[in-house]
Each structure stands twice: as C-alpha cells, then as structure tokens.
Amino acid sequence: MNKDEIIALLKDWRVALLIILVVASLIAIYPHFENGEFKTNLQYGLDLQKGAWLQLEFKSEVVGFQTDKPVAEFIAALKNQTDAEIFQAGDKLEIRKLYSQAELTPIFEKAGGKITSYQQGVSKATADDVKRILESKINSLGTRDARINTLTGLDGVTRYIRVELAGVTMSEAQQVVGKQGKFEIRVVTTGNQSEHVVFGDTITGVGNPAQEPPGSGKWGVSFTMSEDGAKALQSAAIQYGAVADPDNHELQMLLDGKVIYSAPLSKELAGNLQHEVVRQLIASTGAGTTGQQAAQNLEIHLRNGALPVDVSVAGSGSVSATLGEHFKVICVLAGLLALLTVGLVVFYRYREPAIVLPMVCINASEIIILLGISVFTIQLDLATIAGLIAVLGTGIDQLIIITDEILHEGKVPSPNIYQKRLSRALSIIVASAATVVIAMLPLALMDLSSLRGFAIITILGVLIGVTITRPAYGRIIMAILSK
Fold it and tell me: Are 303 and 85 in contact (CB under 8 A)?
C-alpha cells in the first residue's frame, strides 16, 4: 500500500479506535525498568507473588423449622436452651453456635417445634457482615492486594469464606484475620477532654443494623452491656453531666484511639440512667442509605473487629516470592508460545504473510487491551492467564471465519460483495460470542474465587473482539486483499 492508502486506513474510525485503545492500554500498563527490574502497573494475585490464603469454615448452622408458637417466643425458648445467638433469616433460623442436627432435634422439640432442614453455615446477610469486617480489618492495617470471597451455595447458605492476602506470610495472614482492635467508650467532660468509661469486653452482644423503631427510616445498632459495664456507664454519665446536659457531654466510641462514633444520650435514656442501670442500648446513625452504611460500619466496630460467628481454618496455603516469580515467567512464556503457535497454524493454512501478520497483530492487540483493563478491574492469577490464552484461541477462530468468508472460492470479491460477506461473517461471530458470554456468565456471577476471574477475562475478551478488534480486522484485511 502507498502512503495515501495507509493514511486512509488509519483514519478509518474502526482502525483508529483500535490504535487509540492499544496506546491507552500500554500507558495504563506502563511497562518500565526500575532499579534494574522490569515493572508494570498490573495487579498480581496470590498465584504470581508471595502471599498466603486461608479458607475459613463457619461454626454455625442455618435450620428450617416448623412451630405452632409465635416465632419470637419460639426463638426465645431456643436461646434459653442453647445459650447461642439465634436470628431469623427469612423462613429459617441462623444459630451462631455449631450443633449437629441430632443435638438440635430434641432442643427444637422441647421448645415446641421441629427441624425441617439443616445445613452448616450462615445466611448471606451474615456472610456479607463477615466479609465487611475482614475487609475493614485488612484495610485498617494497610494490607494491599487482598481478596475475600464468600463461597455461597444455590440455597443462599455460606459455609466457607476464603481470604487471599498477597505479599504476606502465612503467620502474618493468620494474625491479620485474628486481630481484634481496642474498643473503648468515653464521655466528653469539657471542651475536647473526655474520660474513660468502659472497654469493649463489657459489650456482651451486638444486634444487626436495623431501623429503630421499625419503619421509621432511622437506622441504628443495638448492643448489650454486662452488668458491670452498664453500672460503669450509669456512674460516668451521672458524674460527668451526660444525664443532666447530654448535648455538651456526648458519649464517644473509639477504636484503636480513633473516634468512630459520637452522639449525645437521648432524652429517654438520660432519664432512665438517673434511676436505673440500662444494659440494652441503641446507637442511632441517621436516616437513608448514609445512615444504613454508618450502622453497618458501627456494628463492625462494636464487635472490636471480632467476627459474629466462630470460624475454624478449613484449609490454608502460601506461595513464596521465588515461586511467584517463576509462575510469572512461565505465564509469559506460555502466552508467547500460544501466540507463536497461532501464527504458525495460520501461516500453514493461508501461506500468505500479508494475511498472517494482521491476524497475529490483532490477536496481540486484543490481549494488550485486556491487560490494560485488568489494571483497574482485576488481579492477574493463573486462572485469568488461562482466560487470556483462551481468548487468543477463540480470537483466531473468529478471524479465520472472517478471512474464509471473504476469500470464498479463493477469490477477492468486489467491494459490494465484500461488505455482504463481512456482515455475514460478523453475524456468525456475534452469535458465537453470545454463546460464550451466556456460558461464562454463571461463573462470573458466582463466588467461585479464581474461576470467576477466568470467566470475567473470557467475557471481556469476547466483547472487545466483537465490538473493536473484529471490525478493525475486517477493514484492514479488505485493504490488504484488494492488492
């Protein structure tokens, strides 16, 4: 092609868009040498760098039940016999202490009900709470490249949660997961001064975030204090003026020395504390979505970073820094070998470098765009690398479909026939792409850890191919074949 034809090709919006995205992706990836080492902005998962993973199993169960009693009365009876926190989760009960079904059956019968289903684990709401608590703890410690996945079944019950911490050792990972913060309640005296009231060990129970009162739109978290803690709170509230002048003597909650909640006593609570010890309290956080989010965060702090359900380590593993670097090299070699193999197969089929080179370049550009997107969206691990290699394979298949459709009977068609054949080829590719997306969508939506990354990369690769690289290839191959 001469200079004018090349300029005309580059000005085509499909080709120009492809070039812009490739350049933008390279800028996002930012490959460079730093202190003699090759660096990029790519995020690597646990497989490709030093790190550790823990799979935790919940020591609780979700139980279906039947009873002729009012549900609240039935739950109260169960609490008396089990000494465990019990919450209603839809039409089932979540018992936050591990019992076998054989152990629970007589307890339910004595309380006036029976078990209809039993499964170890927690409800989705509790699993989400645990995930938030772990994320809060990890973020507060400045740990980067962490991934937390709840492994939830189709029935909505979560038995396991997997924590992956890149860049830390196994002992550090266990410390992060098990670490509890120092929680304290203080009362404001004068100005910015405050006095200690109680520590977090006096809080014996924490409720789920809820609207208080129900239907009011105002969110809060209920919590229960021990008898000694409640007496200390009453004494401090009277001594420092929080009962007589609540607005100027707020109660403050601190976690590791940082104020995470501050509010005056309500008029009702201030009046009650003048005459009696109050163990059951509610911390109000406001209305709307902001109030709900604040309530969820406060619940985490009230638990001192402790999980609402006991867990045990069901599995663990670690990757050394040396092994992670070895995996990186192997992945790069696998990608280059796949690209080379694709080029050789295509050359064997067409015996024409002018066709092979655009195919390989389009395939490589697709991978570069995917890597550019991954900088902002997903960590690269062995599964996502496998997804990238799968995209190479499906991509070359679709390029072959376009080329064969255009070169039907071995002849280069006229421009009008060319457009018709290209449209037919693209319609076949779109149908094929839709099938791949539908097949991968369940894996992308389900919490299946590394399989989810594989599915997401595959779906992104298919979408990029259909919308960007295939149309650009069609325009490029038309210009080449016309010669």
Answer: no
Looking at the fold, whether 339 and 451 belong to one and the same domain comes out as yes
> What tokens appear for 113 in the block?
């009900």
Q: Is the pTM of this model over 0.85?
A: no
DSSP codes, 144-200: -SEEEEEEE-TTS-EEEEEEEEET--HHHHHHHHH----EEEEEE-STT-EEEEEEG
- Expressed as residue numbers, the domain containing 120 is 51-179+311-316
Instruction: Please check whether residues 325 and 472 belong to one and the same domain.
Output: yes
259 strand-pairing partners: 254
> Which run of H or E residues covers position 211?
strand 210-211
Extract the tokens encoding 356: 């092979």
Q: Residue 470 contacts by C-beta under 8 Å, 6 or more apart in sequence? A: 398, 399, 402, 426, 429
What is the amino acid identity at position 321? A
Q: What are phi and psi of 264, to 5 degrees?
A: -75, 160
- Alpha-carbon distance of 242 to 221, in angstroms, equals 20
Tell me, what CATH number does 353's domain have? 1.20.1640.10
**Helix (H) or strand (E) segment spanning residue 452:** helix 450-464
Number of structural domains the chain divides into: 3
- Whether 137 contacts 85, CB under 8 Å: no
| 340 lies in the same domain as 468 | yes
Alpha helices by DSSP H, listed for 240-381, are 267-273, 288-302, 321-350, 353-377
What is the residue-averaged pLDDT of the chain? 84
Q: pLDDT, tens digit, for every residue of 431-459?
A: 888 888 898 888 887 765 567 888 889 99
- CA torsion 16-19-22-28 (nearest 10°) is -70
Q: Which residues contact 164 (CB under 8 A, 6 or more apart)?
A: 45, 46, 51, 52, 53, 146, 147, 148, 149, 449
Beta-sheet strand order (sheet of 258-263):
194-199, 183-188, 251-255, 258-263
- The confidence score (pLDDT) of residue 39 equals 84
Give how far the C-alpha of residue 359 lies from the chain's centroid of Cα atoms, to the nearest Å.
36
| 168 and 193 fall within a common domain | no
Pair 335, 475 in one domain: yes
Query: DSSP state, 310?
Result: -
304 in any annotated domain: no
φ, ψ (nearest 5 deg) of residue 12: -60, 130
Handedness of CA 246, 247, 249, 255 (dihedral sign): positive
User: pLDDT tens digits, residue range 119-129?
Assistant: 999 998 888 88
